[in-house]
Design brief:
5-stranded mixed β-sheet, single chain, 427 residues, alpha/beta
Length: 427
């Protein structure tokens, strides 16, 4: 069982609290913590100016957040104009608290530990021996425990240091605030369940209950496209944007849309399900009986099958194939691999245009293998989008750890919306 910082606390699954919310203390604490995330190290007086809160309120909230291990005073005081009493800025404390992240993809599960800035501290990929839900979730919980043990061991003082003269001398290990779970398909955040994931064969899987029982931690659940929108808003390129569209293109193809700091979920969190939208120029048969549906056309299974048929080395067909082999083949100069990746990027560009025409977002973020790893694929996507809208499109901010960030950001979003409820201390 993972070591927990505090008993699980209920989190009201609502959007970021507004100033009119009854619990103004929670609202203000969230605003202060987000301000430290964005501007830290930052003086308390600057936080007051940026947020509109009174200096006394900011001081009180900073004290509360410090007791919870979320922020700390910066080591170097700053003078305003070189005169007067120096300001002691505050910054996030990224050393004491972590969150766990679990992302279940079609071929494997990713488990990770992230700090309060969304940086991945440790990560492990667990290939599926079976996709039976209880076994997948049990392995994920065990994997998180192993990562935490490894991280704690890495903080054990070297035997040559004075702190290690006693046998039990250790640097205190990090405390885990909670676990975030993300997956594609239909994920109900309120129920904490995967309602339907056809590629995994999952239906009505109570993920939150299963992981909480095995870890003893609060567990928060969401779809991976929505999780990544939150990650982009908190830690990535979309910070400060008024509206953001995220398109995730893997074996599962789905999307998420956020506006005014709120991600749209819809009834039972079914918003963003775009698998069966028709894609212009698409020809791939879909299980629904039509051709050219977005997921059937763009999925990694389709891509790998086409690569196998084109004779790209290292590709074994659709099932069990690693699509990164196609990227490696393209890097080695294989013309068929380059052609397939560019074709897919152009089709993704058409999907972006389709969604952007409906939603008109200020910024678009795309998570797609070719676009992430190849400049020519990004250029092909942007050319397909065209015009001024192309300037609003960018690849994911987390190219090397996107699945780990997806899982962890579910828990981090909870923290930044309600730091007083989600963090260890309660007073």
């Amino acid at each position: 069982m993972l070591r927990t910082a505090a008993p699980p606390s209920p989190y009201p699954h609502s959007s970021l609290p507004r100033a009119a919310d009854p619990d103004r203390r929670r609202t203000s604490a969230s605003v202060v913590l987000r301000s430290v995330l964005e501007h830290g190290p930052v003086a308390r007086s600057t936080i007051a100016r940026l947020t509109g809160l009174s200096p006394a309120s900011v001081t009180d909230h900073c004290a509360r957040l410090t007791r919870r291990g979320l922020i700390r005073e910066s080591a170097v005081p700053r003078r305003s104009g070189g005169v007067g009493r120096p300001h002691v800025p505050v910054d996030l404390d990224a050393t004491r608290l972590v969150v766990g992240g679990v992302h279940v993809a079609v071929p494997y599960t990713t488990v990770a530990l992230l700090d309060l800035r969304g940086r991945v501290l440790a990560e492990r990929r667990l290939p599926h021996g079976t996709t039976e839900p209880s076994r997948v979730l049990a392995r994920a919980a065990d994997g998180l425990t192993a990562l935490l043990d490894r991280l704690s061991d890495s903080r054990t003082p070297d035997s040559r240091t004075p702190d290690a003269r006693t046998p039990d001398a250790r640097v205190p290990g990090p405390r885990v605030l909670g676990v975030g779970f993300a997956a594609g398909g239909w994920v109900d955040r309120e129920a904490g369940a995967v309602v339907e994931h056809p590629l995994l064969g999952w239906r009505e899987v109570a993920v939150r209950d299963a992981l909480a029982a095995r870890t003893g931690l609060p567990v928060h659940v969401d779809g991976h496209a929505r999780a990544l929108v939150n990650a982009e808003r908190l830690f990535g390129r979309a910070r400060g944007s008024g509206s953001v569209l995220h398109l995730f293109v893997g074996n599962v193809v789905d999307s998420a849309f956020a506006t005014h700091d709120e991600v749209h979920h819809g009834p039972r969190s079914q918003a963003g399900s775009i698998a069966h939208l028709p894609l212009a120029g698409g020809t791939e048969p879909c299980a629904c009986g039509r051709s050219g549906c977005l997921q059937a056309e763009l999925s990694e299974r389709t891509l790998c099958r086409r690569a196998y048929e084109a004779g790209v080395p290292g590709i074994r067909g659709a099932d069990g194939a690693d699509p990164m082999r196609l990227v490696e083949a393209a890097a080695a100069g294989r013309p068929a691999a380059v052609r397939l990746l560019l074709e897919r990027a152009r089709m993704v560009g058409r999907a972006v245009s389709l969604l952007a025409d409906v939603l008109n977002p200020e910024r678009v973020v795309v998570t797609e293998m070719g676009v992430v790893h190849r400049e020519d694929c990004l250029a092909a996507l942007l050319a397909e989008v065209g015009g001024q809208r192309a300037a609003t499109v960018a690849p994911t901010s987390f190219p090397e750890s996107v699945l780990a960030v997806a899982g962890g950001s579910v828990a981090l979003d909870v923290l930044y919306r309600d730091p007083l409820g989600a963090s260890p201390e309660r007073n």
